[in-house]
Amino acid sequence: MLTIKNLKASIEGNQILKGINLEVKPGEVHAIMGPNGSGKSTLASVLAGRDEYEAIADEVTFLGQDLMELAPEERSREGLFLAFQYPVEIPGVSNINFLKAAINAKRHHQGLEDISAKDFIAMVKEKQAMVELKSNLANRSVNEGFSGGEKKRNEIFQMAMLEPKLGILDETDSGLDIDALKIVSNGVNKLKGPDRAFVVITHYQRLLDYIVPDFVHVLFEGRIVKSGGKELALELEEKGYDWIKEEIGVHN
Amino acid sequence: MAYTEAELAEELKNKKYEFGFVSNFDSDKAPKGLNEDIIRLISSKKNEPEWLLKYRLDAFRVWESMTEPEWAHLHHPPIDFQDLHYYSAPKTKKRLNSLDELDPELKSMYDKLGISTEEQKRLTGVAIDVVVDSVSVETSFKEKLGELGIIFCSFSEAVQEHPELVRKYLGTVVPTNDNFYAALNSAVFTDGSFCYIPPGTRCPMELSTYFRINDAQTGQFERTLVIADKGSYVSYLEGCTAPMRDENQLHAAIVELITMDDAEIKYSTIQNWYPGNEEGKGGIYNFVTKRGLCEGRNSKISWTQVETGSAITWKYPSCILKGDGSVGEFYSVAVTNNYQQADTGTKMIHIGKNTKSMIISKGISAGKSNNSYRGLVKVLPKAHNARNFSQCDSLLLGSECGAHTFPYIEAQNSSAKIEHEATTSKIGEDQIFYCLQRGIDEEKAVSLIVNGYAKEVLNKLPMEFAIEAQKLLSISLEGSVG
Ligand SMILES: Nc1ncnc2c1ncn2[C@@H]1O[C@H](COP(=O)(O)OP(=O)(O)OP(=O)(O)O)[C@@H](O)[C@H]1O
Ligand SMILES: [Mg+2]
To answer: What is the CATH number of the domain that holds A146?
Structure first.
């Protein structure tokens, strides 16, 4: 589904990503962990197509297409979704209208007509229930005045509405209370399927108790320095990152 | 073409000589130029009573003694007032039996806005009075309104049918000597709309006038007078379109509103005249004087405007809060793109006790345009407990445009409470990227963000107008990003 070979990215002359390799297959869940500032959000942004970054790679293929050739909105319509670490507020634009615009953009891309009002409302109701989003939040302006946790939950609501092929979750767990964490994770688990993959960026093992990863990767100073199964996350939780730093030190 | 006072005087003399009081010219159009004879001609063409001719001539003399104002934030080549036609009747005087017979150009504008005329008709039964180049072609729903004693007709018709009302109120809110353009309008106005709501009557439909400017080089000088008698209510819509045009056109209208005790007028405007092309060529000069007088106690006047058009807009819909407890409101969205210039705002003059005013202004600038808000809140000595709240926000798209806010406050009564808030923001890269990530393209993203920003004002518009206004905002910002 997603193949990344030797991806490098820099911003304002600073190289942040220094050669990322990653292979994500349909149905898989990959967790990316790593210390603050290691480049996790940068990787997510580059994949989503943020143009502030200068990115080069030997290959970045998403569902058979050269991802870097696609505009950000095309990547989205092709099925790439990013749940932002810091979702922005758009005052005066209702969540509902925003989502309708997003869904219709995707449908037009697929050669379909606008979604009917009836189908749309039914879908909103269903997905809202799925992530237990308070119904007034769906009608309020996009993220405006939302609490930190509400913003995160709204990201997952949007993801559920857009039904992407690949969901990248950037620290969706931070800011969520314990109940919300379960609910959001449940939402993600319900979306899981053989055709859909997730890349979950997180600092905490806790989330991975609920969304169980097939692979865990450690990103450090712009490189994936270690990959393993879900037990790697447990080890990190226990021991922190120092031992990995030592390991690389040794290998370097 | 520039001119000096002396040249103007000379030209006036010549023109007078050249044309005299002619009667044998194309009856559809007065010759270019402005002088007493032209005014007499307009007045006689319209079969006006003597007092109105006198009113015009007095105004003309006042205008002659005035000089064109200059503004710090507006720039345009001098206007040659002798190079304009001051009267033109439409080529076809055909009466429209239905809205379906509307001009195709007007219709195509509706189509672009996604509102068919059929839909317009269906939507809450809007009565539309279309003014094509100064002469009212179509007045609908009049009989229905007539049953309620509501008068809604062209200004010329009102002069013929209800001269006592026109004479009583004309110029009472905007005196002829108010400003250069008001004086000019008072001398040469050719048509417009008149509306009178009798005591205790709630007008059952939105009254709507679609103005447009049609004939090359015809300045438009409309006159609108709306009177809401005691305890009455009316919502009035004014919307404008103009076809593409290469030469600048002057538009100097006057709108006067009067509310008696407990009456309310809600006056909504969508202004989308030709703004000029991307290089700033062409476009309408829009110098309008709009003012409402809250004459009676507890009366209310509310201005809502969406301004997207014109090369230059200069307008300050104002409220004179004379009646005790009266309320004035001003809600405005002004969009400028390319080389457009807008200098708009409001004046709230508190005269009576316990008067309140509310100002919400949202400026949106794109391209190389300039957008200024200029507002005056004045509290006179006897206006005890006057209240004002003003909020003026500016949104910038790109880095080559400008936004300016000039709030003036004059409080002569210490019990006055005046609050002013102002913000300036840029459309954030983050907001745009967020939309892009959800599959929404940049143009649509800007449209969403801008409409969200203007929502507080758009919400004040009647439903069908609000939809049109939203589309208009998007259309006028097309190509302003990327
Ligand atoms: N415009 C910029 N100029 C220079 N450095 C930048 C710029 N933007 C981001 N960076 C740096 O890039 C590095 C990676 O940032 P990124 O947000 O990807 O980290 P992260 O792994 O997501 O961290 P966190 O766990 O705190 O979310 C950081 O050191 C950050 O300071
Ligand atoms: Mg991050």
So the answer is: 3.40.50.300
d(CA B52, CA B59): 10
**Alpha-carbon distance B366 to B336, whole Å?**
6
Nearest CA to ligand 1 atom 19: A37
- Residue A252 domain-assigned (yes or no): no
- In three-state secondary structure terms, A18 is strand
Contact state of A90 with B433 under an 8 Å Cβ cutoff = no
B436 close to A (CB below 8 A): yes
Give residues 72 to 101 of A whose Cβ lies within 8 Å of B: 72-73, 75-77, 81-82, 84, 87-88, 90-93, 97-99, 101
In a domain, A86, yes or no: yes
A145: containing domain:
2-247
Q: Is residue A53 part of a domain?
A: yes
Tokens 């009472």 identify what position? Answer: B172
The count of other CB atoms within 10 Å of the CB of residue B20 is 9
Q: Can you give the pTM of this predicted structure?
A: 0.77
User: Residue A91 is nearest to which of B433, B437, B453, comparing CB atoms?
Assistant: B453
- Residue identifier of the C-alpha nearest atom 17 of ligand 1: A41
d(CA A252, ligand 1 centre) in Å: 24
DSSP assignment of B466-479, as one string?
HHHHHHHHHHHTTT
- Is A165 an interface residue toward B (CB < 8 Å)? no
Return per-residue pLDDT of chain B as tens, 482 residues.
333 444 433 443 333 322 222 223 344 667 778 888 889 988 888 889 999 999 999 999 999 998 887 765 667 777 778 877 777 664 433 444 555 655 555 555 555 555 445 444 433 334 455 444 334 433 446 667 888 999 988 888 899 999 999 999 999 999 998 888 899 999 999 888 899 999 999 998 888 764 434 443 345 788 999 999 999 999 998 875 444 454 557 788 899 999 999 999 999 988 777 777 767 677 778 888 999 999 999 999 999 998 887 777 888 899 999 999 999 999 999 888 877 787 888 999 999 999 999 999 998 888 888 888 888 999 999 999 999 999 999 888 877 888 888 889 999 999 999 999 888 888 888 999 999 999 999 888 988 998 899 988 988 888 777 877 887 777 777 766 64
Domain total of chain A: 1
Residue whose CA is closest, atom 8 of ligand 1? A11
- The rounded distance, in Å, linking the Cα atoms of B120 and B109 is 13
